[in-house]
Amino acid sequence: MSTRTSLTALAALAALTVSTAVAVEILRRQAAVARRRIGKALGEVAPDADRVWRKKYGGEPLQMLVLGDSIAAGLGAERRKDTLGGRVARGVAKALQRPVRLRVGAVVGSETSALAAQLDALPDGYRPGVTVVVVGGNDVTHRVPTAVSVRHLVDAVDRLHALGSVVVVGTCPDLGALRPVPQPLRVLGARASRQLAAAQSVAVRRAGAHAVSLADVVGPFFISYPEEAFSLDRFHPSALGYRRTAKALVPSVLVALGERDELPHGHRPPDPLAGTVRRRRARPA
Known about the structure:
- This protein is of the alpha/beta class.
- The protein folds into 2 domains: 1-38; 51-282, SGNH hydrolase (Rossmann fold).
- Helix content is 51%, strand content 11%.
- The protein contains 12 helices and 7 strands.
- The protein has helices spanning 3-38, 70-73, 84-96, 115-120, 137-141, 146-162, 185-206, 214-217, 219-224, 226-229, 239-256, 274-282, and strands at 51-53, 62-68, 100-104, 130-134, 166-170, 210-212, 267-268.
- It has a 7-stranded mixed beta sheet with strand order 1-3-2-4-5-6-7, sandwiched between helices.
- Helix 7 (185-206) links the parallel strand 5 (166-170) and strand 6 (210-212).
- The longest helix has 36 residues, at 3-38.
- The protein is globular and about 50 Å long.
- Mean pLDDT is 83; it is low at 1-28, 30-39 and 279-285.
């Protein structure tokens, strides 16, 4: 390589380094702007939705567990019936004509790694019949590597199956819908959230869980109607946003329970080879 070529390459590398440093600084400042805009107007505690929903149907209640982050917890809803768990429980109870006993183990601000602690916090002997998991947004904003995030999610799915629960995972929402986040940070967030959602879907289906693409099923509503879909912090869903999200999850819950056969667009059943994959994973080395 000639001296001239070497100097040209070094100049290009230097320019790229400077450009990258500038870009990182811009993104850092934009993240700070987004945090200021969003703030913590809703606090960090969601309405308590733990209860038996639709007692009027009588009979033994279905045990339903909800794990995950602030969306799973229902932050942004003003009433417990408008939380994600409350909405899903009511929808499933109505479809089954059976009461649903809801337990929400989700914690505001959780990354996927927190699912283990949420499971550890369950009472001894608790056995959910169905579990809904919504998580991933905080992994994107905190730049958790996709492989690490997905590994924690699969571990949680495996533990839930060991408890006898069927599992439905609502994959990472489209962060491109967040208007308070300035560009180009919003575009990068959208790309990262969709990449994580795709990885989550593949992994949990291989682990034997159902996957619902929230970005595909309800993402367009949040993008087109932000004033109606988001709560006052413009980050978490409003009561209407949770109603739409819960409606998107219920079909997969019913199929997972064996109460329906067909799934709408954006819903993916477990991989047909999921049982084989789980057995191989459990096999001693």
